Each structure stands twice: as C-alpha cells, then as structure tokens.
Amino acid sequence: MVKTVIFYDGGCADCQKVSSLLSATGVDYLRYNVKGHPELMSEVKRLGFKSLPTVIADNQVIEGWDETRLRNVLS
Questions:
Q1: Domain tally, the chain
Q2: Which of 4, 25, 70, 75 is the most exposed place for a label (fewest CB within 10 A)?
Q3: Which parts of 12-59 are beta strand (E)?
Q4: How far is 55 from 42, CA to CA, in rounded Å?
Q5: Which residue segment(s) compose the domain that 70 sits in?
C-alpha cells in the first residue's frame, strides 16, 4: 500500500483539488495543514519543497496540482 502524505493550506484551490482526488480514489492519507502552524511550514521548507500542495506518495514528491501524475503514482 502506498503511504501518502499531503502538506496543504486549507484555503488553496489546488490543495482542495488534491484532497478531493485522494478522497475520491479511496486513498488513505495523512494531511498536514500548514496554515497557522509555522512549524509545519518550516518542515516543508527544510525538506526543500517550494509550493503547496505537496504530496508525498510512493516515495515520490508531487508539488502543485498535477492530476495525471497523481493518478499514475496512486494506481
């Protein structure tokens, strides 16, 4: 099973699209809302991620909304 983690900002449209896709496909994932949690944003930056949403799935990092790539990694 693919372990999936998403770093997101609750007000971001692309973040909402990613969350909806993961939920619609039945993916069990951990969600980290960085809004209001500076320690999470520090972790995102420390890991070298440059944008939100950032999804880590099957040891791959997907930044931003990339439906095709997400579906390929999750299948």
A1: 1
A2: 75
A3: 29-33, 54-57
A4: 16
A5: 4-74
Share of the chain above pLDDT 90, in %: 51
Residue 33 to residue 40: CA distance in whole angstroms: 8
The pair phi, psi for residue 37, each rounded to 5°, is: -125, 80
Neighbouring residues of 69: CB distance < 8 A, sequence distance ≥ 6 = 62
CA distance 1 to 40: 25
Helix, strand, coil content of the chain in percent (nearest 5): 40, 25, 35
Length of the chain: 75
Q: Where residue 34 sits, what CATH number does that domain have?
A: 3.40.30.10
> For residue range 56-74, what is the model confidence (pLDDT) as tens digits?
998 899 999 999 999 998 8
